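Look over this today:
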Amino acid sequence: MAAPAHLFIDVQHGLCNRLRAMASAAVIARATGRQLVVVWRPDHHCQARLADLLDYPGPVIEDDSADRFRARAAKVYNYMEIEPGSDHGAAVLNDDCGGDVYIRSAYSLTSGLTSMGQEQLFLRRLVPSEPVWDLVQSVPHPSDVAAHIRMATGPDFEHLSFESSANWPAERHRELTEWRQKSDVSRFVDRLGRAFDQGAQHAFVAADLAATYAALSDRFGTRLRWLPRDRYDRSARQLQYALADLMLLTAAPLMLASHWSSFSDVAQRLSRPFHRVERSGIDF
């Protein structure tokens, strides 16, 4: 009996970009009878290994040996817009001719073989590593409301390699910068204030700047919950904090999201259907 073909998903950029691409690929692999192989190479966007974050049982490649599989694949897709030969958004395997498939992406994949519901189910079944679970357990939860505040994009942060404008086409980077401005902490202060006025007792907050936590703590005091940290980088330990943040965000019945953020997007996907989500710049 012939061995099954493989679907290699070479995930790119930060934690939640990687998780979205991985979820899409997992559903497509199952639909086409292929074995999913996750290519998870730590880099400046995400210094964590997959095992640092998840107890994931499937095959994983963490080094450049993956390039050999790309060279031999029957079909290659590259969703990375800034790279030569990009076919960002191309329909994946709608005309499947068999063989190994190699996909490089930081985004959800376009295909008639996947769906949001199936991808959400895959994400919800992922098992966090023990260090991540310990962080989750260190914070009382669920809170009445949770907020993800993503502000660190734009000229003040482009000295950071993972925030550099070189990571995206010019138009996409402009969109990111515009939406980050709409997730300013002042919007969340106003919305959280209304939530507390309406009876909320505690709010959990995940943010990418120490100043954001300081501003909210000054305003709301002990009603605020968060995971204290002294670094805001892409190290393996900070990525464990990020995954714990995701889990704590999704525990609340109301989440205030930063629109146009992959982190808020994955948090919404992990949330249960009866949980409400409001988006900065749109709903508040």
Observations:
- The mean pLDDT is 94.
- The first strand starts at residue 6 and ends at 11.
- The radius of gyration is 19 Å.
- Residues 56 and 278 are 31 Å apart (CA to CA).
